[in-house]
């Protein structure tokens, strides 16, 4: 059971009437050929397993292969879909939670600082208040879900590339750290 | 070739196709599910992060708190430690309940800290910011009730702008 049911969102993008196995025969069968490079074309690629027959197969056998392999293929596609969606969802969820938490913290700290008039508005601290507000606006622009979950930060398996901390989080955490240091020093003076 | 041989062949072809279809579906569906899990959790935990961020600043700035405010913060911090980050059904239900409790405490808390500008630092604004960052309302989000809910974006809902 899950927070939501991802399977409800999608239907396979294929048509039962399409001859997804193609009709050509060639030199050999390649069962379970991996086609991971472009999974979005899963249902439209021509080079399916089953599209190729042994050259020695009679036309009757070839037709039999096409017919039953296709039926099996379609059944296989739908049989595993729900379980795989769920597995993927479960794996992505903690990653998304951590990212949401990290970005939320940055926003929360900046929002709180920009809301604290009394603590920071004494003397020449107006420039800091201004800086905080500008940074908050910048973070709002740069840390939206579309930018944080952009594919350029993730590998083919949707794990973060090279590092455990998201580059966007790293960048803005550093910027925020400078502000916090300034706030600390002001608080020590007051 | 007799009748049994033909049946065996049909079964063999069917099983071959089935296994191949299953393998292909597993790859694509897993990725789709992971995208959706990332999105959903990202949107959900933004608020939790914001509250933690607020507490970080309260500690950093050493604001003097009333007893009531201090107790409130203590309770919320305790709740925050009980939040889990996985998709186990029981944990998800429990976390939802905890977040509801935190939200109720937060409504009171912001009124107990005079140093915070209540117009800008309140639960409503935090929610609005979460919706904005989470892509659940328009770019010029104005909190006018357009929120479509924490799981409102389906798989691939944000793909037009390059995500995934």
TrEMBL record, chain A:
Start and end residues of each Essential protein Yae1 N-terminal domain: 72-110
Subcellular location: Cytoplasm; Nucleus
Cited InterPro entries: Essential_protein_Yae1_N (IPR019191), Yae1-like (IPR038881)
Keywords from the UniProt entry: Cytoplasm, Nucleus
Bias (Polar residues) ranges: 33-61
Region (Disordered): 1-62
GO cellular component term of the entry, any: nucleus
Protein name: Protein YAE1
Originating organism: Wickerhamomyces pijperi (Yeast)
TrEMBL record, chain B:
Comp. bias (Gly residues): 140-155
Region Disordered, annotated ranges: 140-164
Ranges where the Essential protein Yae1 N-terminal domain occurs: 17-54
Family: Belongs to the LTO1 family.
Descriptive protein name: Essential protein Yae1 N-terminal domain-containing protein
